[in-house]
Amino acid sequence: MRPTCRSCGGPLRILLADLGLMPISNAFVRPQQAAAGEKFYPLRVCVCDACWLVQTGSHASPEIHFHDEYAYFSAYSDTWLAHCRAFVAGAVERFALDADSRVVEVASNDGYLLQYFVEHGISCFGVDPAANCAKVAWDKRRVPTEVAFFGTETAARLLNQRGAADLLIANNVLAHVPDINDFVAGFKILLGPEGTATFEVPHVLELIRNTQFDTIYHEHYSYFSLIALTPLFERHGLRIVDAERLRTHGGSLRLYVRHAGAAGSLARRVSDLETEEIAAGLNDAAAYIAFDARVRALKRSLLSLLIELVGRKKSILGYGAPAKGNTLLNYCGIGPDFLTFTVDRSTHKQGLLLPGTHIPIRNPDAIFSFKPDFVLILPWNLREEIMTQLAGIRDWGGKFIVPIPQPAILD
Fold this sequence. Notes:
This protein has 411 residues and is of the alpha/beta class. Helix content is 33%, strand content 23%. The protein contains 14 helices and 17 strands. Helix 12 links the parallel strand 12 and strand 13 (342-343).
């Protein structure tokens, strides 16, 4: 376990959760390689009681997660694409962006978001370490993408080559960065003097409130609150000027960040959010210590439900192959003896096996051929979208199971 905080260097004395040994969450297995074995790493999450950043240890390097066969492509969720389209429309209006503006997205993946800036005729480019995602971004969506890990070195090079950004975007990437100081310092370099950076991060307050332990995996090095991020940005000459609460990923924050000396006032929403986090005890060890026991209780509850259904000869399939699902299944010991297979819309995952559990991944049409009694929704944050897509399972009496915040059967 990392002995000191990756943000402030303080001691890590508080344990949030110990999930045991886990495979890499997006290291999907080819069937012909299933017998070769996989690497498992400890997955423990601790809290810094100096700055209150929640974090894992650095047991696996970023290069293990992000490579030419990175399996996560953002553009397969209709809900997420609608969220991105709305963000772009709002940003164009809020920041008065036009053809002379420059937009940069860090961790731009397959061009899922920047495609909407292209539609508006606004100059943009992405930065992403996964070459296969960058290729799809250009080939399919005409989004120019630099293949690189972002930090001070990359930021300085891009500033010299392309100029400063008027809008610098980082959606759900900060958690994936082991050296968050170098990463945030890169934003200080690449952001224009009067520009704005936006960060979207899952909110650790919702993780704790709703026992979202499955959002913990090796690819996520940190878990964020406003009170933990404020000193991080201030350390690098940046300040949070506005904050929004979002429903995405089970509850997220969108933070608007500017240079510390830039003009403009602080939005009331920032102080309101800080007040709420302090009232919830996010600056007190007690709020974190109780989490591990709740995780174990949820595991027992989910297993009890599945064991009871299997005992009644009910068939269960999974929906989705998200990273969070792999944490859930591996921690709970749920394998093909419970889920015959799972399905996913991403053609990049179909035909592979889930890491650790080796549950096969098929096309969603397989659900309608198999006609299961129950479908366990692994990306539970998208349950409305998925239940709409699979509404036809009700024709044979099929029902849905969601595991978070508590295991439940839904009609």
